[in-house]
Amino acid sequence: MKSLKKSLVHALSMSMLIGFSANSFAELVVNSGSGGASQAKAWTTADAQQYFNEDDDSELSPQGSTSISTSLRRGAAVHTPKTTPSVGQVFDTRYSNNAPAISAGSALVMDAHTGEVLYSKNSSMSRPIASITKLMTAVVTADARLNMSETITLQPIDFDGPKKASSTLRAGDKMNRAEVLLVALMKSENPAAAALARTYPGGKPAFVAAMNAKARQLGMVSTHYYESTGLDPRNVSSARDLAILVSEASKYGVIRQFSSTPHYDFNLGYRVLKSNNTNALVRNGAWNINLSKTGFINEAGRCVVMHTTVNARPAVVVLLGEPTTQSRNSDATNLLTWLNNLPKRI
Question: Of 131, 237, 275, 292, which residue is the catalytic one?
Answer without folding.
Answer: 131
